[in-house]
Automatic annotation (TrEMBL):
Classification of source organism: Bacteria, Pseudomonadati, Pseudomonadota, Alphaproteobacteria, Rhodobacterales
PANTHER family: DNA POLYMERASE I, DNA POLYMERASE NU
GO terms classed as biological process: DNA-templated DNA replication; double-strand break repair
Role summary: In addition to polymerase activity, this DNA polymerase exhibits 3'-5' and 5'-3' exonuclease activity.
Classification via SMART domains: 35EXOc, 53EXOc, HhH2, POLAc
Chain segments annotated as coiled-coil in the UniProt record: none
Record family assignment: Belongs to the DNA polymerase type-A family.
Name of the molecule in the record: DNA polymerase I
Domain 3'-5' exonuclease: 326-521
E.C. designation(s): 2.7.7.7
Chemical reaction(s) catalysed: DNA(n) + a 2'-deoxyribonucleoside 5'-triphosphate = DNA(n+1) + diphosphate
Entries under NCBIfam families matching the protein: pola (TIGR00593), PRK05755.1 (NF004397)
Gene name for this UniProt entry: polA
Self-association state and partner proteins as the record states: Single-chain monomer with multiple functions.
Broadest EC class assigned to this enzyme: transferase
Length: 939
């Protein structure tokens, strides 16, 4: 024993009642294999408990510990106010059997388990915390329950085990807007509908905090309620004063509960190994049993592996994050020990730290590894002296392994087909390692798992996934690197801080994998992940590393020509306006158009400036009869903006994007960027180069083939219309595609009763606008703007379209109904696109329906081209060719001139058969091919 509880002793009080509910709702389900008993909350509870009693000694470590539970749902508060907590729902069926198991777990870990009749767990915590401080010691309350925040004071703090973050006065102030000693007053005033604490009607937390801060206390506020200027607030206080005072009694914790134990009896002691292992074996907690056995230096029990497809037990995602437990690998012996452990386990989460987000130029600074939840390490390789100085020394910090030595040791492991590598956005790390001669295989990617599981529901970055699925907020990178002009690169971060940050990344990634892997099967998206997502990583990585050759001189000449064109447009615009002004200023343009030229319809936004977006200017261009000068000026400004964007976004920016080592532009594709499966191109974006204007098409002239080679473009012809014809089952459209007809002319003929041999370009253009517009759920207003015709006429076109092809309307209605019933829509290949806003009301409702209608069509087209890309490397193997770019429905290749026809045949066959054998379509897929010395010629 360490003697009577007093100075130097630290009591940890675990809020067992609150934690088991939180663990149940925040963490994935887990059942015992032998009998299906739910044990997920017990697993999370046990991991937290083990973490608390084994935490390294030091400031804040527990010398004494207890777990506090509610004895029953009824307490003295129900005699004060009968409705108190009366409306709380019954616990979920699969949680009820876990309550007694948490008590059993507490006793198995040799920790005091305390509950007192007629009192809530919070009252017992308040009492023990008071006793600890009065005895000269300190106390940490292990909980995030807001009701306990009133206890925070010198000597008493809180710790949120799910997010691994402390809760002190600052956090209380952030939550309630007042200091901890005033929390009770705010709670009494605001009430709590969950617990049936009445409070003052119409007064929420923010208003309550304002009032308490202004008047000092609840009693002073109630006694001076007549001074409140707002009538509703004043009446709420005056008419409900008694209820507010009762509310204060309900939320105030009783720090004098009759606790049946002394503080001395709560001292941390080593669990009885036999008793503890018996409990863990009974619960089938393999991972926790292994950690306990390693700590207690005893043999681990043999617990039969789970029968489901979980990579390990789901309990592992529930461990708290302990940055102090992460290891810095600074010598070869430690690295070899980790390599041996990885080979023994058979998988490893791996992450790289570099100096840049540009994988083609980034320097490798370190590598992090994790083999088990909570067990992670960081290998520093390139940290330099002068950590806080951006312009510090180039000399490496001592105590780091050599880069070449480390990569040589890791290469066999990273390329071993028997060891699974796990990453978050693995494409980035794959390219970093590939630049050092390592080709990672096989691998899993947690970002893509999340994308397959929840496209449309959330983003798939690691920080968001960690908070959403693990209840943990990772260390923000800005806290290490800073921001703005003074931002550091990672090689300037101190190794101690780097270990916590980098190892945490690997730890989080491993836990996400443990959570997502079994869910793929349950959500029926394993095939999507395995055939459409994961295989695409290496295909895109190789394309991005290949890059595309860009002629800097061509870009420079275009920039100069665009600059002259802009100057010409500016002169013409100012001549029309009759005055000089900054054409690039929306504010000045609005004043010229609406104030001085008198163009009707100007609307000012919140800033007081007129709206002058493209849609506004497009509408003004239709006013040729009523306001010809305004229409001409708006049209010229639109032309000026288009050229300005081409210059800044492409001809100027692409020159800066040319890699100095390769002479090529290396875009980066985002696999999980769009909900529908379409790829997004960034840094630079090569997918939005305009092709409908002469200037836009000219930019493609700068993308060239090296000497002796040509560029080949293969493009799906009207793939989304073909998929619509199949999915909506429109016989007329299907037959037209099978016959190779001009689909837009055929549609025009069907709609407007015009024979094909009498078709005019204008009628065909209108049919084309409707064909493509329908896919995107275009409205009569939108079509009117596109065709520059009256809205009634445009709506008439759409109505006639649906009358002629009723199957399309039926498809749309059925798709919206499916989305409302299921919360998602699906592509023909099984990709799920979630539609969380499908039942929304108001302005967003129309957009949500249009998105739901379009998603299966666009998503299926995206899946087809993904399948083609994934099959392409094998299809063109042996040919002197490589795939460079994907732009929506187009693939761009670089090939030796002599092999051009062979490439076109192999690539076209692959693309046109990409849907087979999984989804036979009722229409053929057709691919157009072109070739040339530059992209413009090939397209």
């Amino acid at each position: 024993m360490t003697g009577t509880f007093g100075k130097g002793h630290h009591l940890h009080l675990i809020d067992g009642s609150a934690y088991i509910f939180r663990a149940y709702h925040a963490l994935p389900p887990l059942t015992r294999q032998s009998d299906g008993l739910p044990v997920g909350a017990v697993a999370g509870f046990s991991s937290i408990l083990w973490g608390e009693i084994t935490r390294d000694k030091g400031a804040g470590a527990a010398t004494h510990i207890a777990v506090i539970f509610d004895h029953s749902s009824k307490t003295f508060r129900n005699r004060l106010y009968a409705p108190y907590k009366a409306n709380r729902p019954e616990p979920p069926e699969d949680l009820r059997p876990q309550f007694p198991l948490t008590r059993e777990a507490t006793r198995a870990f040799n920790v005091a388990c305390i509950e007192v009749p007629d009192y809530e767990a919070d009252d017992i915590i308040a009492t023990l915390a008071r006793q600890a401080v009065e005895a000269g010691g300190s106390c940490t309350i292990v909980s995030s329950d807001k009701d306990l925040m009133q206890l925070v004071r010198p000597g008493v703090d809180m710790h949120d085990p799910m997010k691994n973050r402390p809760i002190g006065p600052d956090e209380v102030m952030e939550k309630f807007g007042v200091t901890p000693d005033k929390v009770v007053d705010v709670q009494a005033l605001a009430g709590d509908s969950t617990d049936n604490v009445p409070g003052a009607p119409g007064i929420g937390l923010k208003t309550a905090a304002l009032l308490i801060n202004e008047f000092g206390s609840l009693e002073d506020l109630l006694s001076r309620a007549s001074e409140i200027k707002q009538p509703k607030r004043r009446e709420a206080l005056e008419q409900n004063a008694d209820l507010i005072r009762i509310s204060k009694q309900l939320v105030s914790l009783d720090a004098n509960a009759p606790v049946p134990v002394t503080l001395d009896a709560l001292e941390v002691t080593t669990p009885d190994p036999e008793k503890l292992m018996a409990f863990l074996t009974e619960m089938e907690f393999r991972s926790l049993a292994r950690r306990v056995s390693e700590r207690l230096k005893i043999a681990a029990p043999v617990i039969e592996a789970r029968s489901d497809d979980s990579p390990q037990t789901a309990e592992e995602t529930r461990l708290p994050f302990d940055h102090a437990a992460y290891e810095a690998i600074r010598d070869r012996a430690a690295l070899d020990r980790w390599i041996a452990r990885i080979r023994d386990v058979g998988h490893v989460a791996v992450d790289t730290e570099t100096t840049s987000l540009d994988e083609m130029q980034a320097e490798l600074v370190g590598i992090s590894l994790s083999v088990d939840a909570g067990q992670a390490a960081y290998v520093p390789l390139g940290h330099k002296q002068g950590g806080g100085d951006l312009f510090g020394s180039t000399e490496l910090v001592a105590g780091q392994l050599g880069l070449d030595e480390t990569l040589k040791a890791l290469k066999p492991l990273l390329e071993d087909p028997a060891i699974l590598k796990i990453g978050q956005n693995m494409k980035y790390d794959w390219k970093i390692f590939a630049r050092h001669g390592i080709r990672i295989t096989p691998f899993d990617d947690t970002m893509l798992m999340s994308y397959a599981l929840s496209a449309g529901l959330n983003n798939h970055g690691m920080d968001e996934l960690s908070e959403r699925h693990l209840g943990h907020q990772p260390i923000p990178i800005k806290s290490l690197l800073g921001s703005g002009k003074s931002q550091l690169t990672f090689d300037r971060v101190g190794i101690e801080d780097a270990v916590k940050y980098a190892a945490e990344d690997a730890d989080v990634t491993l836990r996400l994998w443990q959570k997502f892997k079994p869910q793929l099967h349950r959500a029926r998206v394993t095939t999507v992940y395995e055939t459409l997502e994961r295989p695409l990583v290496t295909v895109l990585a190789n394309m991005e590393m290949a890059g595309v050759l860009v002629d800097r001189d061509t870009l420079s000449r275009m920039s100069n020509a665009f600059a002259q064109k802009l100057a010409q447009y500016e002169d013409e615009i100012q001549d029309i306006a009759g005055e000089k002004f900054n054409v690039g200023s929306p504010k000045q343009l609005g004043e010229v158009l609406f104030d001085r030229m008198g163009v009707p319809g100007g609307e000012k936004g919140k800033t007081g400036a007129y709206a002058t977006g493209a849609d506004v200017l497009e509408d003004i261009t239709t006013l040729e009869d009523s306001h010809p000068k305004g229409a001409r000026l708006a049209a010229k400004v639109l032309d000026w903006r288009q050229i300005s964007k081409l210059k800044s976004t492409y001809t100027d920016a692409l020159q800066l994007a040319i890699n100095p080592e390769t002479g090529r532009v290396h875009t980066s594709y985002s696999i999980a960027g769009a909900n529908t499966g379409r790829l997004a191109s960034t840094d630079p974006n090569l997918q939005n180069i305009p092709v409908r204007t002469e200037e836009g098409r000219r930019i493609r002239e700068a993308f060239v083939a090296p000497k002796g080679k040509v560029l080949v473009s293969l493009d799906y012809s009207q793939i989304e219309l073909r998929i619509l014809a199949h999915m909506a089952d429109i016989p007329a459209l299907q037959q037209a595609f099978r016959d190779g007809l001009d689909i837009h002319a055929m549609t025009a003929s069907e709609m407007f009763n015009v024979p094909l041999d009498q078709m005019t370009p204008e009628i065909r253009r209108r049919a084309k606008a409707i064909n493509f517009g329908v896919i995107y759920g275009i409205s009569g207003f939108g079509l009117a703007r596109n065709l520059r015709i009256p809205r009634a006429e445009a709506q008439g076109f759409i109505d006639r379209y649906f009358e002629r092809f009723p199957g399309i309307r039926e498809y749309m209605d059925a798709t919206v109904k499916f989305a409302k019933d299921n919360g998602f829509v699906q592509t023909l290949f099984g990709r799920k696109i979630h539609t969380p806003e499908i039942n929304a009301k108001g302005p967003g409702a129309g957009f949500a329906k249009r998105a739901a209608i379009n998603a299966p069509i666009q998503g299926t087209a995206a899946d087809v081209i993904r399948r083609a890309m994934i099959r392409m490397p094998a299809a063109i193997e042996g040919l002197p060719a490589r795939m460079l770019l994907q732009v929506h429905d187009e693939l761009l290749f670089e090939v030796e001139e002599s092999a051009t026809e062979a490439l076109i045949k192999a690539a076209r066959d692959t693309m046109e058969q990409a849907n087979h054998p999984v989804v036979p379509l009722k229409v053929p897929l057709v691919v157009d091919a072109g070739q040339g010395r530059n992209w413009a010629e090939a397209h």
